[in-house]
Structure formats: C-alpha cells, structure tokens
C-alpha cells in the first residue's frame, strides 16, 4: 500500500485528509502535527457560493455584509454567496467524524524536522511515504513577497450592545491611510462581542508599527462605550502574486506554503477547500496528486498590479474596493475575488479605477517578469 503523509494538521492538512477520505481510496494516510499552532486558537471566515464538504463545521452564516467606503456605509446582500465562520476545533471534529470510521487514517503528534522525497523525518525518525503533502516546511527558496498583509485584531466585549450581530463589516476605511492602505474589519459574535481587526497592505520591507495599529483600533472603538479586550491576535502574511512552485519530486506543498493565499486579500480558506478537492480527485483518477487545474495568469497579474499600486499609493485601495463593491449586491466583487469572472465583466468592474495608474503598473510588471 502506498502511504501518504500530510505534514501539518492545520487548515490545509485537515481539509486534505477529509477530501481524501471521501474519495474512497485505500492508501494509509498519516497526518502529523506538533500542536505548535493550536486549532482552538483559530477561526477562518470566508465566502462561498456552493455547498462544501466541511460546511457542518461553520458556526455562523451571514447573507449580508457592511462596507464603509468613499464616505458611505452600505449593507450589501451577498447574492448567491454566503459568508461563514469556521472555528479550528469545529473543523477538527468534522474531519475526525469523516476519517475516524476509516481505519487507514491516523493522526500523529510529532514535529516534522524535514520533508524528503520518500517521506518525512518526524522527531528524528524517518517515516516513509509515496506522497508527501507539506504545509509546514515549504519550498527551499520562497519567492520574495510582493507585499505584506499586516493585521492586529482585538476580541472585544462591549458593555452595551455595540455590534450588529447579523452583519459583519468586511472593510471600513474610516482609519488613517497615512502610513499604509488600511481598513478595519469587524466580525461579530453577538451584540456585545466581536473581533475588530486593523488590516494594512504594506511594502515587503516595511516594519509593523504595533503602537499605531493599537492606536487605530482604540480610535475606531472610541464610540462604543466601555469595553474589554479579551485577547489580541496579530499576524503578518507575505502576499505573493507570482506562481509558487508546489511540486518537488513526490512532495506537494499545500496551504499557505503552497501559495494558496489569495494575494490581494490574504484569504485562504475557500482556495484550500478547492485545492484539497482537486488533489484528492487527481489521486483518485491518475494515481498521483499533480493533475491540478492551471492557475490563472490573468488574476495573478491583477493581484500583483493591485499590490504594486496600493503599496505605492495607499489611497488607491479604498478607490479600488469602492469600484468593486459599487453594485446592489456584493456578488460581482466576490465572484471577481474568486477568480470566476470573464474579461468583459472585469472591464465593467474596473470602471472607476484610474486606468493610467493601473495600466502603467501592469506594463511594468509584464516588462519586468
Ligand atoms: C491569524 C490569521 C488569521 C487568518 N484568518 C483567515 C480567515 O479568516 N479566512 C481565511 O480565508 N484565511 C485566513 N488566514 C489565512 C490562512 O487561511 C490561514 O493562515 C490558514 O490557517 C493556512 O492554512 P495552512 O494549513 O497553510 O496553515 P495552518 O492552518 O497554520 O496549519 C499548519 C499546521 O502545521 C503545524 N506545524 C507547523 N510546523 C510544524 C512542524 N515542523 N511539525 C509538525 N507540525 C507543524 C501547526 O501546528 C499547524 O497546525 C489567516 C491567517 C492568520 C495567520
């Protein structure tokens, strides 16, 4: 029997395990995780227009979002999309419910020291495998980042009912754009509890100004009355618009290490679901995991151009989001961010953005690539 090792049991490792399990192949699968990044501390929000294998893990579903852009607040319906939140522990339980009845799935606690062509080294021991899926080590040489997505979020408990429990705020540009293209994101649990996150797109060599992020959050929350910060999360995600080489012999990188974060948003959940389904399908159909859909060069160019423009001229992010989300529903914008639009639809979406700025950035990218 050919053994499969999945290095890392976070979002991509667990999602892949579940998709392999439902594809009915009989190879032994071992998921190895050292617990350094506990699932209990994680939650992923994402949008989708179709049912997914792990939907039972979602704890919240929303059919509207709020945006504040170019001086106006709007509540937008999502059309065929839904915005949902999946907590790490719930994802793990749903995946275990799928894999536990199958004896050939094992979850092993251990530290992956190295990933090799014929397996992985876990706590000094070599574990042989035919195929390795790697979400922890990544390629020996990563492409340089095109930009950084730097965010700091507070889980807030407000004394009065300060949040709209039914409508998350996808972006609110009422925060300073002086240092970087920035917005505030609000994901409510209920009227008193929410994750309030300050998000900035910065140049790859920029350093995070933690004090400025906290100041911006405090300023944003100034009107909600007394509140307590229950916990803080922060991260800096490297955003790469170029294609990440994923295959190295029998190893395929998955998740963030496999370049699956969308470069212009930093979202990865839905792309990881699609990728997991494609990997499982490839193994089932061809006996190897590499027959994956080709990535779109056009959308990579759009992402790269947006990052180039907004890291140079921060005010352009609000303009771009204003143009994308100017319709009655958020569906056209979400479809574009899902890379499921056609060129004529894209030209309509781009109307309202400064053509000369974007064309110059696109030309520069194409010439220097
Ligand atoms: C704070 C934060 C919030 C995010 N929020 C969202 C969101 O709301 N929506 C969205 O779409 N995207 C979000 N993202 C982006 C992306 O979806 C997540 O980073 C996602 O978790 C990436 O999945 P992954 O499998 O690559 O990594 P992870 O989910 O981090 O999984 C990696 C796993 O590997 C384990 N591990 C690491 N090193 C080793 C080792 N050497 N040996 C063994 N195990 C190891 C860790 O314990 C972890 O469980 C967020 C990212 C961050 C950092």
**CATH homologous superfamily name of the largest domain?**
FAD/NAD(P)-binding domain
Query: What's the number of domains?
Result: 3
What order do the strands of the largest sheet run in, or round the barrel if closed?
Answer: 6-5-14-15-16-13-17
Poorly predicted regions are none
Keywords:
globular; 29% helix; FAD/NAD(P)-binding domain; 3 domains; D-Amino Acid Oxidase, Chain A, domain 2; 369 residues; 9 helices; binds flavin-adenine dinucleotide; six-stranded mixed β-sheet; 19 strands; seven-stranded mixed β-sheet; alpha/beta
Task: Please describe what this structure looks like.
- Helix content is 29%, strand content 30%.
- By secondary structure, it is an alpha/beta fold.
- The N and C termini lie far apart (43 Å).
- It folds into three domains: 4-62 and 86-142 and 241-286, FAD/NAD(P)-binding domain; 147-239, D-Amino Acid Oxidase, Chain A, domain 2 (2-Layer Sandwich), CATH 3.30.9.10; 297-368.
- The chain has nine helices and 19 strands.
List the helices and strands and how they pair.
Blueprint: E1 4-7, H1 11-22, E2 29-33, E3 43-48, E4 58-62, E5 64-69, E6 72-77, E7 82-87, H2 88-99, E8 105-109, E9 112-116, E10 119-122, E11 125-128, E12 131-134, E13 147-158, E14 169-172, E15 181-188, E16 193-202, H3 210-220, E17 227-239, E18 247-248, E19 251-253, H4 269-286, H5 297-312, H6 315-324, H7 331-337, H8 343-350, H9 355-368
Helix pairs in contact: 1-2, 1-4, 5-9
This protein binds flavin-adenine dinucleotide.
Flavin-adenine dinucleotide is lined by residues 8-13, 32-37, 44-46, 111-112, 135-136, 233, 235, 237, 255-257, 261, 266-269.
